[in-house]
């Protein structure tokens, strides 16, 4: 699969867990220090992603890991049905 990458920033959002930059085909995330990222803490991010991508385009999530934070490794299974194009 080949997709055109558009590097034009659509919008950026500062939310409780960090700063998120939304582009046409991808999200760049800068999670705050010591956050524990899981389904519940990421709920606002998931809402934003649903608004921007609406199941139309495949997109990717890029973590600009400038801070130390934790991810619950089993939580991503909860997202499979919600974000099938991620």
UniProtKB/TrEMBL annotation:
It comes from the Bacteria. This is Uncharacterized protein. The lineage of its organism: Bacteria, Pseudomonadati, Bacteroidota, Flavobacteriia, Flavobacteriales.
């Amino acid at each position: 699969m080949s997709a055109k990458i558009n590097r034009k920033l659509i919008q950026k959002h500062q939310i409780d867990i960090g700063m998120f930059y939304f582009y046409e085909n991808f999200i760049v995330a800068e999670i705050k220090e010591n956050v524990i990222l899981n389904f519940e803490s990421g709920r606002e991010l998931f809402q934003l992603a649903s608004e921007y991508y609406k199941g139309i385009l495949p997109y990717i999530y890029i973590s600009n890991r400038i801070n130390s934070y934790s991810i619950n490794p089993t939580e991503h299974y909860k997202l499979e049905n919600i974000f099938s194009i991620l």
